[in-house]
Write a structure and sequence with these properties.
Length: about 90
Amino acid sequence: MSEQAHVHETHPEIVKRLKRADGHLKSIIEMIEAGRPCLDIAQQLHAVEKAVCQAKRTLIQDHLDHCLEDVVGPLARDQRRSIDEFKEITKYL
């Protein structure tokens, strides 16, 4: 089963963010191997974790904004309430 390319406007920014996090993670490994202080390492790990979480959040919100809308199609305002609330709550992921 072949899949069509599934690209959204935010994907290049997500890739850029993840590549930056990947490089940062490699430097953290070097920090550990060099015996750097645990506080420094923990701070850098926290920064990478936040970058990956933000990439995930952006991907999910973009998916909901585009893919969900395509599936559901136009709805009356009262019917959209649940979908809009669902999209809003994902901001807290």
